[in-house]
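seq as requested:
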Amino acid sequence: MSALPTAAALAQRRILVVGDVMLDRYWHGAVDRISPEAPVPVVRVQREEERLGGAANVALNVKTLGARATLLTVVGADHAAESLGRLLAARGIEAVLRTDPQLSTIVKLRVIGRAQQLIRIDFENEPDHEVLGQMVDAFAEQLPLHDVVLFSDYGKGGLAHIPRMIELARAAGKPVLVDPKGSDYRRYAGATVITPNRSELAQVVGTWRDEAELQGKVDALRADIDVSAVLLTRSEEGMTLFEAGGATHEPARAYEVFDVTGAGDTVIATLAAMLGSGMALRDAVPIANRAGGIVVGKFGTATVSYEELFA
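struct tokens:
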């Protein structure tokens, strides 16, 4: 059993987070009537809020736990990118931002009324291939300075060169964690661990009737894409770690589920921080499971502190 890291030890670990970043905007307001124009509620906005989203939220989770986080990503030359830059600086996250003038920084706008999300509006487009090529050079520069590499793939085009980045990271002896997206997991070949949820995994390997069939499908996937482990997050069923030696299951530890937004970010960020501190993967999974259970009891994209996690 690996020893739990002290806060002082964790503060010395550096995690490189690479992936699709977004700005989460929230408009909070009162809902007092239905529109005369259409059968929809009228929200009178009373408060606006901005939070780090996507890979930026993963980096924030790493930082909140007490480790050091560097975020490598592509943004547009717009106000949303400026907001992201301010938020990252305020939270002490080192940002290596590659700017694509043709890109609109991804924004997810959520309208909240009576503590309920009424609608989400997304603004996005894919980054330029030339700018994405520059990401590989920046990645190679940052790699020697970090203990663990974490890829946060939201399927927005920012990780077009992830196979090359994983190759560089493994050659440097760095653990590689991937929060995957899409149906082609071959692009994650060589990763240390990938962390799909149930629907994401089913999209790749198909559905399963029982645990034995699931085990067989995951073993075949691991062999096919050459990853050391698959951590399957299963919502109310907890999570299961599949390795060469078999499967280890952790039951769900949520005290009260309020909002699952960003829970996967918290899980993989906690896993990266624990691995960076020298903890074995199998020992790190229960801690990541606990972190996910804490964060779903909070509203919106949220984080977990070292004190909360180890209280």
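The longest strand covers residues 21-34.
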